[in-house]
Design a protein that fits this description.
By secondary structure, this protein is mainly alpha-helical. It has a domain at 50-155: Arc Repressor Mutant, subunit A. Helices cover 57% and strands 6% of the residues. It has a two-stranded antiparallel sheet. The N and C termini lie far apart (51 Å).
């Protein structure tokens, strides 16, 4: 026998994504987090066969977009801790995807660039991640997507001030 939101053993009946507080009536911050976790899980699945994690993909993407970025730059760009960046950079370097060079003025700062192997790896990863992006975009019309992109960008800007 079931009671409202409880089964016979008095255990709560938890909603699935899109239901109850996990649906449109939920707290906005929670819904953003729920979406973020769902996107990350989909990316993990899409990248699994190339043995690249979503954080590695993000870091490699930023190194290609901003050649010469430092580890500290990458931490800020990818929302990862410096310690996590160090592990990712070490693994990407071990894979032959990136190269390090000392900064011309500050020798202790290491500048990172993608190798040809890293560029090729990123290209393979992007194809897989585009499938996730296409699924996301398929939930919206073109105009709605522009609004959502502007809103998400504005959230990042407004809440980091």
């Amino acid at each position: 026998m079931k009671y409202k939101n409880f089964d016979i053993m008095r255990k709560p009946i938890l909603p699935k994504p899109g239901e109850g507080k996990r649906g449109a009536q939920g707290h906005l911050g929670y819904l953003v987090r729920q979406a973020s976790v769902a996107v990350r899980a989909a990316m993990e699945k899409a990248l699994a066969d190339v043995e690249v994690t979503p954080p590695q993909f993000s870091v490699l993407t930023m190194i290609v977009a901003y050649p010469g970025a430092s580890g500290a730059d990458l931490a800020r760009l990818t929302f990862l801790t410096p310690q996590t960046i160090n592990v990712i950079v070490r693994n990407l370097e071990r894979m032959g995807a990136i190269a390090k060079s000392a900064d011309a003025e500050h020798g202790r700062i290491l500048r990172l660039t993608a190798t040809a192997k890293g560029q090729a790896l990123l290209k393979r990863c992007r194809w897989r991640v585009m499938e996730v992006e296409d699924r996301l975009g398929g939930l919206l019309g073109r105009d709605e997507e522009r609004v959502v992109r502007r809103w998400l960008s504005a959230v990042g800007e407004a809440l980091t001030k």
